[in-house]
Amino acid sequence: MAHTGTEQAFKEGVNTIKKMNIDIKTLDLDKEMDVISVSSSFKGDFQFGRYTRIEGSINGTIRSSGTLIIGEQAKINADIDGKTVVINGSLEGDVTASDIICVGDTAQINGRLKAPKIDVSDGAKINGKLIMARFHPKFKELENR
Fold first, then answer.
1. What is the residue range of 44's domain?
2. pTM, whole model, 2 decimals?
3. Distance CA 88, CA 97 (A)
4. Of 42, 86, 78, 84, nearest to 64 (Cα)?
5. What pLDDT, on a 0 to 100 scale, did the predictor assign at position 4?
6. What are the pLDDT digits (tens) for 57-115?
7. DSSP calls for 51-77
8. Phi and psi at residue 128, in whole multiples of 5°?
9. Count of domains for the chain
10. How many Å apart are CA 1 and CA 82, to the nearest integer?
């Protein structure tokens, strides 16, 4: 059985995705998830599984094979490579997603966002470059422009 805090974080993550009008059935969400709490701070290279919510601080690199949610209180200084990335907090770094990047209204981003689909909510602050393209050999040409 999941812990109460984990269940709450899961519900908040699902609500975040629903607010952004993403079809939740297309995501690989389940109750098996990683949660980095607001009081946690880590440095290094991280790899996460199906569903991860970050509310704390991370410096380094992040790889996710599923859905990664950066919470409103998160402070991330990292390059991110994932499938689905939802950003609601502070991010310094480049994000590449194979499916979609969703930028919430509380997000503050300094870096490049690259994905086939990018959804940006009103109020989000982005200083950087948005690249929307399918992943194919010409993608490298687009990213170097």
1. 4-143
2. 0.74
3. 16
4. 84
5. 46
6. 999 999 999 899 999 999 999 999 999 999 999 999 999 999 999 999 999 999 999 99
7. EEEE-SEEEEEEEESSEEEE-TT-EEE
8. 165, -155
9. 1
10. 27
